[in-house]
């Protein structure tokens, strides 16, 4: 029997489709699943798509792989992944590669990579975005791990990834947990994108009394311009959908409690550790959390809102479009900031422009917009913030008046727009010459002798607040 080029273990939705994608690209794919029936089903249904080498147990699966062995794990993230890694590691030999394509936390990936490196094995934590459709037809792939493992795996991964303008949506992201980190931030940005879209829809519906079908047309039109993206495109589809049973708009029969699997929360937790304000992502995570408390919402429902409930004319549509674009720039600026901070913290040497490149296709946040981000980092790889790039600075400048109108309108009619508002606050905060952080420093020095720096001379100072209030060097 010929040996397989690469193997996939874990053949639920993602693993099965990834295995099929590999087979369709001419690779002989070893396939295995804890419950054998899934393996049999894959070969029965899709065996004609290419060469599959099924195995009932992991030992046979490993034995069916060419050396150095390349085994991709696509099982539920968490304890299951650790169990499978351990079983594979027992069966593998130095130089072999274990690829984790699940949604692992990057710290777990760092731990696993270090442990397997000790045993002479390569561990490649790989972010894969695009859901089941992407896995089958070309996802965005974000592999971490050693340069050696990239040499052996990179060509295969680039082969099966999505391509945009002939460029594969897959590069070697960086060592150890870098791939899973970048995938995590991708998901965080995805949260933010969706929140901003939801706020746009909500505000226009409440302010103008527009129907979901009318708003579908608005989003379809927006998708022709600078907002052109997969998420805007599918927003129009979802808003156009009519429930077959009731004849109501689909969006009105769905329970309004947004769920989450955790990558948004991880992004915010990591941002807190790194000291990076990812307010757009945080507001999106918290907005989902707020939606998920029906008992509190019921208790608060009688609270009074503003007298004004609807307002504005059609000009609000264009203002919201501009607010959405400006807030999106802020959300991405924050996400890219977080990647830059992690790159410094963990020594990853991330190429931020390349991250924008590999998100242009295959993944959920794919958008024309990412070309502009790539261009910004091409022009200045050391850009301190995306907001300072001339193209984005110009776009923010053009949008800021409308953005302020939108936030004002939302406040006036009592529609919550935490994404728009926090993005605007970030924009205003970052551009300020002087921030009230100076007062915060004064208070910290007053109650805790935490000291402060002065604007006009070097050194660290403390004022004797409880005594004669003179200043002395600390
Ligand atoms: P699931 O996350 O639903 O996991 C099911 C698979 O894990 C099955 O193959 C199952 O085997 C296997 N498994 C479990 Br559960 N515990 C195991 C254990 N202890 N040992 C061995 N195998 C075990 O599958 P999925 O939705 O295809 O996702 C796979 C990975 O890809 C996840 O980490 C997910 O977060 C990630 N991901 C998913 C998406 C998406 O859109 N769904 C997108 C991007 C990434 P069984 O058949 O024997 O029960």
Automatic annotation (TrEMBL):
The source's domain of life comes to Bacteria
Query: Which Enzyme Commission numbers does its entry carry?
Result: 1.1.1.44
Q: Is DNA-binding set as a keyword in this record?
A: no
Q: Which residues cross the membrane?
A: none
Q: Which Pfam families match?
A: 6PGD (PF00393), NAD_binding_2 (PF03446)
Q: Which UniProt keywords apply?
A: Gluconate utilization, NADP, Oxidoreductase, Pentose shunt
The annotated pathway is:
Carbohydrate degradation; pentose phosphate pathway; D-ribulose 5-phosphate from D-glucose 6-phosphate (oxidative stage): step 3/3
UniProt key word Nucleotide-binding: no
Catalytic activity reads: 6-phospho-D-gluconate + NADP(+) = D-ribulose 5-phosphate + CO2 + NADPH
PROSITE patterns per the UniProt record, alphabetical:
6PGD (PS00461)
The Gene Ontology biological process annotation of the record reads: D-gluconate metabolic process; pentose-phosphate shunt
In alphabetical order, the GO MF annotations are: NADP binding; phosphogluconate dehydrogenase (decarboxylating) activity
Outline what the protein does: Catalyzes the oxidative decarboxylation of 6-phosphogluconate to ribulose 5-phosphate and CO(2), with concomitant reduction of NADP to NADPH.
Q: Which family does it belong to?
A: Belongs to the 6-phosphogluconate dehydrogenase family.
| Assembly, per entry | Homodimer.
Q: What name does UniProt use for this protein?
A: 6-phosphogluconate dehydrogenase, decarboxylating
Q: Which species does the entry assign this protein to?
A: Nonomuraea phyllanthi
């Amino acid at each position: 029997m010929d040996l397989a080029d690469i193997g996939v273990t874990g053949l639920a939705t993602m693993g099965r489709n990834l295995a099929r994608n590999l087979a369709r690209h001419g690779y002989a794919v070893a396939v295995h699943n804890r419950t054998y029936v899934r393996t049999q089903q894959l070969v029965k249904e899709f065996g004609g798509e290419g060469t599959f080498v099924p195995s009932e147990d992991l030992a046979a699966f490993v034995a069916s792989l060419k050396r150095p062995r390349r085994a991709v794990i696509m099982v539920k993230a968490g304890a299951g992944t650790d169990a499978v890694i351990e079983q594979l590691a027992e069966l593998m030999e130095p130089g072999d590669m274990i690829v984790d394509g699940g949604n692992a936390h990057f710290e777990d990936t760092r731990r696993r990579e270090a442990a397997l490196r000790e045993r002479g094995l390569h561990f490649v934590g790989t972010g894969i975005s695009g859901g089941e459709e992407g896995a089958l037809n070309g996802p965005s792939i974000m592999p971490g791990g050693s340069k050696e493992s990239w040499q052996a795996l990179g060509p295969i991964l680039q082969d099966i990834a999505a391509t945009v303008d002939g460029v594969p949506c897959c590069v070697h992201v960086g060592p150890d947990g870098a791939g899973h980190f970048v995938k995590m931030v991708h998901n965080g940005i995805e949260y933010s994108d969706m929140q901003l879209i939801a706020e746009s829809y909500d505000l226009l519906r409440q302010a103008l009394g527009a129907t979901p079908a009318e708003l579908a047309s608005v989003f379809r039109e927006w998708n022709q311009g600078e907002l052109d993206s997969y998420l805007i495109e599918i927003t129009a589809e979802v808003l156009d959908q009519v429930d077959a049973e009731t004849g109501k708009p689909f969006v009105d029969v769905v329970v309004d409690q947004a769920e989450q699997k955790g990558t948004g929360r991880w992004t915010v937790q990591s941002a807190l550790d790194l000291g990076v304000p990812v307010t757009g992502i945080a507001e999106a995570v918290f907005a989902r959390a707020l939606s998920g408390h029906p008992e509190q919402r019921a208790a608060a429902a009688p609270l009074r809102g503003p007298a004004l409930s609807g307002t504005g004319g059609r000009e609000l549509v264009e203002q919201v479009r501009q607010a959405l674009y400006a807030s999106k720039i802020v959300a991405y600026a924050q996400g890219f900031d977080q990647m830059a901070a992690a790159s410094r913290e963990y020594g990853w040497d991330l190429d931020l422009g390349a991250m924008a490149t590999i998100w242009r296709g295959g993944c959920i946040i794919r958008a024309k917009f990412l070309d502009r981000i790539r261009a910004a980092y091409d022009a200045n790889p050391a850009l301190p913030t995306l907001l300072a790039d001339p193209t984005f600075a110009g776009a923010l400048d053009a949008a800021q008046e409308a953005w302020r109108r939108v936030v004002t309108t939302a406040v006036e009619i009592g529609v919550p727009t935490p994404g728009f508002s926090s993005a605007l606050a970030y924009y205003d905060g970052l551009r300020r010459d002087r921030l009230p952080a100076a007062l915060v420093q004064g208070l910290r020095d007053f109650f805790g002798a935490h000291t402060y720096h002065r604007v006009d001379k070097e050194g660290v100072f403390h004022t004797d607040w409880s005594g004669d209030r003179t200043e002395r060097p600390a």
